[in-house]
Amino acid sequence: MSLTLYFAPGACSFVPHCLLEASGAAFEPTMVKLHKGEQYDEAYKAINPRSQVPVLVDEGQSVTQIVAICSYLDSKFPQMGFLPASGMARAKALEAFAWMNNTVHPTFTHVFMPNKYSASAEVQADIKAHAVETYRGLMGELQTLVTSAQARGDAWLAGAQFGPLDAYVLTLTRWGSIAGINPEGYPALWAFVQKVAAHPPVQRVIERERLQLNLFKA
């Protein structure tokens, strides 16, 4: 089997995992248990020296970083229309994708792993609290992406076809619930996330990764 995806349940690897499942192509989903430190094993570091997921391996060539992986899958499976083919529509889809990856995603990292940014427990607590409040606003921006797509009459965030933006919005909203933010407070966003979760290939990935969609606890 030429395609292998190294993933961790609930991580951003969920995004290319969904695209591969949607493509219908044969691939090997290989779990990396981050909580057990498997990403630091020498065998895995030979695939990705940065010890991160996801990694896509195609015919012995490795690709890391979800924007690069999803762009590669878009070109490998053009019939799926994961991203708009060209022009302004493609640019705007990539703009949203890059923003999710370079702004929303690292904000959650400040919530989930504040120890990466300070050795002080007091500073870590401040970093986390500030990041949670920032994330609330970012979830509002995610909701705006949803309502804007709906106003255009688009079935999915980048147009008529399911793609990486949709899977990423689900992931980021789920992370928000881990941060203690109730996704039901963003009704348009939450309804869209449930639609994404019900999409058959996404549903299969959720089952494989054994994910719970809403982890918010009052």
Structure summary:
The protein is an alpha+beta fold and 218 residues long. The protein is built from 8 helices and 4 strands, in the order E-H-E-H-E-E-H-H-H-H-H-H.
Explained architecture:
With 218 residues, the chain is of the alpha+beta class. The chain folds into two domains: 3-80, Glutaredoxin (3-Layer(aba) Sandwich), CATH 3.40.30.10; 87-209, Up-down Bundle (Glutathione S-transferase Yfyf (Class Pi), Chain A, domain 2), CATH 1.20.1050. It contains eight helices and four strands; from the N terminus they run E-H-E-H-E-E-H-H-H-H-H-H. It has a four-stranded mixed beta sheet, with helices on one face. Strand 1, helix 1 (14-23) and strand 2 form a beta-alpha-beta unit.
Write the layout of secondary structure elements.
Elements: E1 3-7, H1 14-23, E2 28-31, H2 42-45, E3 55-58, E4 61-64, H3 66-76, H4 87-112, H5 121-152, H6 164-178, H7 187-198, H8 200-209
Parallel strand pairs: 1-2
Antiparallel strand pairs: 1-3, 3-4
Sheet of most strands:
4 strands, mixed
**Rg, alpha carbons:** 17 Å
- Please give the order of strands in the largest beta sheet: 2-1-3-4
DSSP strand tally: 4
CATH architecture of the largest domain: Up-down Bundle
- Calculate the terminal CA-CA distance, rounded to whole Å: 45 Å
Class by helix and strand content?
Answer: alpha+beta
Individual helix count: 8
Enumerate the spans where pLDDT stays under 50 for 5 or more consecutive residues. Answer: none
Strand fraction? 5-15%
Shape: globular
Mean pLDDT: 97
Overall number of structural domains: 2
Percent of residues in helical segments?
Answer: 55-70%
CATH topology of the largest domain: Glutathione S-transferase Yfyf (Class Pi), Chain A, domain 2
At the first level of CATH, the class of the largest domain is: Mainly Alpha
Order of helices and strands: EHEHEEHHHHHH
